[in-house]
Amino acid sequence: MVHFGNDWDDILKDEFRKEYYLRLRQFLKEEYSSYVVYPDMYDIFNALKSTAYSDVKAVILGQDPYHEPGQAHGLCFSVKEGIEPPPSLVNIFRELKSDLGIDPPPHGCLQQWADRGVLLLNSVLTVRARKAGSHRNKGWEIFTDRVIGLLGQREKPMVFILWGNYARSKKTLIDQSRHLVIESVHPSPLSASRGFFGGRYFSRTNEFLDEPIDWKIY
Length: 218
Known about the structure:
There is one protein chain. The chain is an alpha/beta fold. Helix content is about 30%, strand content about 10%. The relative contact order is 0.17.
């Protein structure tokens, strides 16, 4: 049984007994025993372990974990300290500077955001090394859609930041009469110039929330 160490344990306990998750679990056992898979199996659920359901102020939704060595550690868009920030993350930091005047941090680890109430959730939580999308349609999307749906129904308002068409497709799971949805193109170099920059995602989030997020990373 997966253990989060917070209120997600009770909220998601029935999910791990469902047929789709049991099939996913068997698939992951075979993948981790036969191939290099990211992130490390103990980091798969870091997003949910780091940010309790009741503590979520904002959700940033990614698609797959990074698939190059040493990058993925269970938080979307984030890399471990000492790893060069990938281009999408560089663009996120560029927008953060433009929006709030916050200089890019000395590393690309977003753990401090997660600790302050930003759920950094990928919709697929694992990937085979150097094979982008290799764990799609294996069951993860059912699990993370459940997570998004539960958050989308929560009474206390939060902000959903949806970058790219895939993330934007999830807004049907969110009660937009209660929560703020901020959406744009993806921050990757392929699309960022088509509308990502200037979106003021961080300041708009803080304007909506009763308790603003400290976006500065040390």
